[in-house]
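Sorry, I am new here, but would you mind making up a protein's amino acid sequence and the C-alpha cells describing how it folds?
***
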Amino acid sequence: MNDDELLRYSRHILLDEIGVERQARLLSAHAVVIGAGGLGSPVALFLGSAGVGRLTLVDPDRVDLTNLQRQLAHATDRVGQPKVESARAAVAALNPGVQVQALAARADDALLDALLPTCDLVLDCSDNFATRQAVNAASVRHRVPLVSGSALRFDGQLAVFDPRQAEAPCYACLFPPSQAPEEVQCATMGVFAPLVGVIGSLQAAEALKLLAGIGQPSTGRLLMFDSLRLQWSEVRVPRQVACPVCGPH
C-alpha cells in the first residue's frame, strides 16, 4: 500500500483483526454485486469506501425519481441514467482508487458464468425470485460465496451461502426453485427507506468479513429483521440432501 492508501484505510488498519495484511487482501479482491438499487447502493458504497479493489455492478434498470427515497447511490441529476453508471459515479466520488465495472444487463446464466469464475464473492441485491435462483445456481457451480439480502415493506432478510463448505446449504435449500412465491414488488407493496440501508450495510459487512477472512459469517442462518419492532429473529438452515441445486445429481 502507498501512503495515501495507508491513510485512507487507517481506521481499518488500526483494527487488530484487519491490520495491513487483511486490508491488502481487500484491495486485491473482486466482488460482483447483482442489483444497484436499494440494497446494492449501500453494498457498493461500503465495499468501495472500504477498499475492495474491484467491483462489478450488474443491473439493467435506469434511475427513476421513485428510487431516490431509499437508493442512496443515486441522485436527482442522474435520473434516467443506467443505475450501474450512477452507482459507479457514486463509488468513484468516495474512492477513485476502486475499479468499478458497470454492466447495464440482466444477470442471466451466460453473464453469471462469465463473471463468477473471475470473482471472490457475489452479493445478491436483486428484487426477484428468478434472479436470486440464477445467482445461487451460479454460486454453486463456481463455488463462489454468496451474500443474499432482501427487503420489502418493513421486513428484511440476510443470509450467507458458502458452497466451499461441504455441509453448507444453498439458497435453494431454503427456497426451492419449484416453490416460487407470488412475486411482490416494492412498486406496489412499498419499502421502508432505512430498511434497505440496514440490510445492505450488513451484506457489505458479511462480504468484508469473508474477503478479509475474519470473524464468523452467518453461513447456514437466515436472519430476519422486523424494522417496526426493531427485532431480529433467526432460523438455522440445514443443507437439503435432495436439493436440486447443491445436492448430488
